[in-house]
Write a structure and sequence with these properties.
Helix content: 40-55%
Shape: globular
Radius of gyration: 19 Å
Strand content: 5-15%
Distance between the termini: 70 Å
Structural class: alpha/beta
Strand order of the largest sheet: 4-3-5-6
């Protein structure tokens, strides 16, 4: 192994060691994540570990092929990443936090990830790969990279989110968080950013009814299928922006209502984004 590879490996293991699994956004992934980190820091190959987990869980891609995690070099030159996963079941995976979290989400949300990959591969097969992804691929990629699942009872909380009503959502309805309303991270780029969190981190929120944890993956997959069929999974407009450090319990400073007065983060929204007022 040459010096560059050694340094990269040391950098990756150091980054893994810096993940604070007690943070609320990492807790849904903590049990499996801590085990993987301990093994990698002990010298195990990440992809080999992931393959074992995938085999135990029986993970497959949309074509029914076993899901395997392979080195980045396995992706043929000129091939689209998403198309390769769909065609082979191979997920090219580098030794970095971005791909580590991507793999972790595959292990926790295999049905939703499979649907996203199917959507992306279908568009690529139909339209080819262009400089710009287009509406559907863009929506699927934003979901894959930066989504949080915003789960709530009824419409009150989701309407406050979509209406940029931050004081209502985070202050007046604060008591409802964790019971009638909760958030689960999904996007792996978002998880990577949250390894070193800052106030302005903003996710693309995908709203869903509150469901039990064990049913969440299926519910997300179904909602994606329905959105793709209806043509509503397009670009960023199908999401609601959510500054995640405003979530109660995610940041000590947000215990004060003044935290939400920062309009560079908690923006009032454009007029076209706000709910219509009754005549």
């Amino acid at each position: 192994m040459h010096a560059g590879a050694t340094a990269a490996g040391e950098s990756f293991t150091a980054a893994l060691g810096g993940i604070d699994w007690s943070r609320p956004w990492f807790k849904p992934f903590a049990a499996r994540g801590t085990s993987l980190v301990a093994a990698v820091r002990g010298g195990a190959d990440l992809r080999a570990l992931l393959d074992v987990e995938s085999a135990v869980l029986g993970l497959r891609n949309a074509r029914g092929l076993p899901l395997r995690f392979v080195p980045q070099q396995a992706l043929p030159e000129g091939s689209a990443y998403e198309a390769h996963i769909h065609a082979t079941g191979e997920v090219p995976t580098r030794d970095n936090l971005h791909d580590f979290f991507n793999a972790l989400v595959w292990l926790h949300f295999p049905q939703a990830k499979r649907v996203l990959n199917q959507i992306q591969a279908t568009v690529i097969a139909r339209e080819g790969v262009h400089t710009t992804r287009g509406g559907v691929r863009d929506g699927a990629t934003l979901f894959d990279e930066n989504a949080v699942l915003f789960l709530s009872e009824g419409d009150e909380h989701a309407e406050a989110l979509r209406g940029f009503a931050w004081q209502q959502l985070f202050v007046a309805q604060r008591h409802a968080w964790g019971t009638a309303c909760r958030v689960v991270p999904f996007g792996h780029a978002l998880l990577e950013k949250l390894a070193q969190p800052y106030k302005a981190v903003t996710a693309h929120a995908w709203t869903l009814p509150l469901v039990p944890g064990g049913a969440l993956d299926k519910a997300v997959a179904l909602s994606l299928e329905q959105a793709a069929e209806a043509g509503t999974l397009r670009g960023g407009r199908c999401f609601a922006p959510l500054p995640v450090m405003g979530i109660p319990g995610w940041c000590d400073d947000n215990a004060s209502p003044d935290f939400y007065a920062d309009t560079t983060v908690f923006r009032p929204g454009r007029m076209r984004d706000l709910p219509r007022q009754p005549d």
